[in-house]
TrEMBL record:
Gene Ontology CC annotations of this record: cytosol; nucleus; proteasome regulatory particle, lid subcomplex
Keywords attached to this entry: Proteasome
GO molecular function, one term: structural molecule activity
Protein name, entry field: PCI domain-containing protein
Record Pfam families: PCI, PSD13_N
Keyword presence, Cytoplasm: no
InterPro entries, A to Z: PCI_dom (IPR000717), PSD13_N (IPR054179), PSMD13 (IPR035298), WH_DNA-bd_sf (IPR036390)
Amino acid sequence: MALPTPPKLVLDEFISTALSATPQELHPFFEDFRSLYTRKLWHQLTQKLFQFFDHPLARPYRVDVFERFVRDFESKINQLRLAEMGVKVARDIENPQVHLEFLTSLLSRIDTEKSKEAHVLLLASIAHAKLLYGDLEGTKADMDAAWKILDTLEGVENGVNAAYYGVAADYSKAKMEYAPYYKNSLLYLACVDIDKDMSPEERVVRAHALSISALLGDTIYNFGELLMHPILDSLNGTQHEWIKKLLFTFNEGNIGRFESLAPLFPKEPILQENYPFLRQKICLMALIESVFKRQANKRTMTYQTIAEETRLPVEEVEHLVMKALSLKLIKGSLDEVDRTATITWVQPRVLSREQIGGLAKRLEEWVNKLSKVEERIAPEVLAQTS
């Protein structure tokens, strides 16, 4: 429902019209608007407007209040807060062309020098709108323009970063680019409160997409940040819970558990389609785990040992190790004559409870050995000092 006013704001007429057109519960807001506007308390008026825009009953009136009231004094309020208001109310504009025109018009009225953050926020929001409407080229252009500014800023507010990384992640998702989606989506989550800023449904969608990207990303072999993030708990009790188990299975390099979960892959066609890649990936993770479990002085492994650990034919071991070396998952060398691999370094990653238990056991063994050495050399040291 529109709240008509003359071209130039006439405060009393606007308030009077609003009071007659809106529910009783919203009337105190308009009375406060009148008082704060008259007293030129722009900061307090901004705060009151945000409260109004967040009120459930205000949704049908948000665009009209912004266009017919806020625009009259928008140059007097914080430009970033103005941009945030505009982005919020723009969500109520269903017509794609009008939606973009609204945001583009607001962007043209923002003084970039006064608030580069506001400029970035609106560029990212325009990019997201274009993405929703299928304009991938326009989305990329606006994303690049936003990043050019964002990359020069320090101490950026979370909401601005979230707007950029959110559209960057969604753009990568539309392009089916798994590694960029994974990176940008985690950066987006670092800027939001998932309990306050995301609905339960949005959390499940995000966790599911992150899990798929982690599994299918050809450069992603460390799931630690995702495994520790509470967003992953959103999959508990859903049809996707088994995918969470699959992530931990990969992190542990557990081929047996991978094979036990493989019959569920048809539930997720994209995983089924990429089964050969996933099989190679779990073999690489198994190799990493096999190296990790060994003591530093016992990391020269025969091809036969690696074949048993990764459940691969011996003739495929050399290719697997070379793949791991090229991905920088391990460092070391191959001896083609003796058919052995000497590993000097393995990529760090987040450990499961079982892996931590194994590490603790090895540390205990190392401490025991050290104690025995001390017991052996102590009498000799004492004899020399006496």
